[in-house]
Amino acid sequence: MIPISWYLILAAALFSIGLFGVLARKNAVAILLGVELMLNAVNINLVTFWRYNAPAEVTGQVFAIIVFAVAAAEVAVGLALIISIYRNRNTIVADDLDLMKW
Amino acid sequence: MFNSSMILAILPEILLLLLGLLILILDIVLKGKDGRNLGWVAAGGLLFILVLNVFLAKPTMPTDVFGGMIRYDMLGYVFKMLFIFGAMLTSLFMMDSEKLGNRGESYILLLVATIGMNLMASATDLIMLYLAIETTSIPMYILAGFMRDDKKSTEAGLKYLLFGAMASTVMLYGFSLIFGFTGTTALGAISGFSLPLALGVIVLILVGIAFKISLAPFHFWAPDVYEGAPTPITGFLSTASKAAGFAVLMRLFIGLFPPASAYAPSWTLIMAVLATITMTVGNVVALSQSNIKRMLAYSSIAHAGYALVGVVSLSELGVGSVTFYLIAYVLTNLAAFGIIAAFSKVTGSEKISDFAGMSRRNSGLALAMLVAFLSLTGMPPFGGFVAKVFVFAAAVKADMVWLAIVGILNSIVGLYYYLTVLKVVYLHRMEGENEEAHPIPLSRPYAIALSVLSAGILLIGIIFGPWFNIASSAAAGLF
């Protein structure tokens, strides 16, 4: 069997890539995508821990299912907000959203 | 399997859901006409829920219900009543907000967010906790960006969502690691992982909670979102949402690190440093603000710091004092934002200099502002004073005298910017000195809500004994 650490390293890498995307990308959609990558990393973690630690219990699976249900809701709201910003301002670049500063 | 304590444990949530459905149906029946009256339905319904729960749903001894997902205890109960009270006054403030008040959805979203907060205050399982936090956050993202044609509001909504989604995901990564190391998601059963690992996981989780209560390194969203969001929503966001974050913070971390545990000292130190930074940053940056909502946003960051002083002491007195602090703070800040909503509805301005001559334009509103702002500074005989005394007392009792001194010094800084606003309100004159020609009429919902809040601030400040007993009984359940 593949050692558990492989999966955890994959998840940690995916999480870091997502976090980098959130912090470095300018486009609001790309930032949202970064958040999705981070959430997927969490799901890999959850499913791995479930499979290796307690395959008899459903806790890990339930947690993962709830996480992607919430992620879908969050993205729906996020895209709706991005659309309404685009209609008002004709831009979705995060740096241009600077009406409020200090 | 089912018994009465299970129903009682989630009675507020059930009733809130029913009220939401009622408003949804009424909204369809009315076909968008008279939408404003839905605010009366929401406020009346919430008052009914509050009264019913005060008499029926008071827990006698802590029990875990629904397979350990929810704990039915005084801490959750006190916070739930606080959130329902906050939502009731917020729906009154929302009624005369131009873009919010006529839309049934806004009240439903408010109620859903309140359900989420109620669950946050009582969740004792990581899955339930995450779900509750998101149930609170997602409706709040929508409400912050509710005014679709308003550039600032949509910007506030998107910023809140992007920061919030990131912070809660980092926290979730921490949850997944806890699940991995301990094999369980129940808070009660989580214990005993090694110090370096525990500290790493704690930092991840702290990011999410620090975002919710806007602690210093994670406070950047707060001023922007508070400024852009519709003012009644800002009030709700800065009070109930923050109180819910504190409820989670106390339950989670006192569960994870009992005061006797070996990790408690390092955790206390982290929290003390965070509290110091938060108080200082909030107060110092607030000094230079010209927009009143932004100033109050920084002031609410500072207040999160004061409340955190109570958490640091990791004692029963500490948790009780934080609960009391939050009760006083919810009343005070709701009043402050309600006054601003009433003012800017008439004048269309949120600049501090435009508050000149307000005491002559509407003396009642100015009086309410005096009460709210003096309570924010921590002047006797208002609620804010007693709350600060208890929090600092808890710090002194936990041998953290320096933290109490930092807090007191910060209160003095705070005094300056709160009193500056009051000076503008009472001593400055409008341009042209014809204030009588520009009255600020108060509609009935505002008048009711502001009188209730002002009376409440005074009541908590003068007769604080019974309120502190309630707060202490909430704390007793945790230890």
Automatic annotation (TrEMBL), chain B:
It is an enzyme of class 7 (translocase). Its EC number is 7.1.1.-. It holds the Pfam family Proton_antipo_M. It is found in: Cell membrane; Endomembrane system; Membrane. InterPro entries: NADH-Q_OxRdtase_suN/2, NADH_UbQ_OxRdtase, ND/Mrp_TM. Residues 123-412 form the NADH:quinone oxidoreductase/Mrp antiporter transmembrane domain. It is a multi-pass membrane protein. The chain crosses the membrane at residues 6-26, 38-57, 77-95, 107-123, 160-181, 187-211, 243-261, 267-288, 295-314, 326-344, 365-395, 401-425, 446-468. GO terms for molecular function: NADH dehydrogenase (quinone) (non-electrogenic) activity; NADH dehydrogenase (ubiquinone) activity; quinone binding. GO terms for cellular component: endomembrane system; plasma membrane. NDH-1 is composed of 14 different subunits. Subunits NuoA, H, J, K, L, M, N constitute the membrane sector of the complex. NCBIfam families: NDH_I_N (TIGR01770). NDH-1 shuttles electrons from NADH, via FMN and iron-sulfur (Fe-S) centers, to quinones in the respiratory chain. The immediate electron acceptor for the enzyme in this species is believed to be ubiquinone. Couples the redox reaction to proton translocation (for every two electrons transferred, four hydrogen ions are translocated across the cytoplasmic membrane), and thus conserves the redox energy in a proton gradient. PANTHER family: NADH DEHYDROGENASE. This is NADH-quinone oxidoreductase subunit N. It comes from Candidatus Desulfolinea nitratireducens. The lineage of its organism: Bacteria, Bacillati, Chloroflexota, Anaerolineae, Anaerolineales.
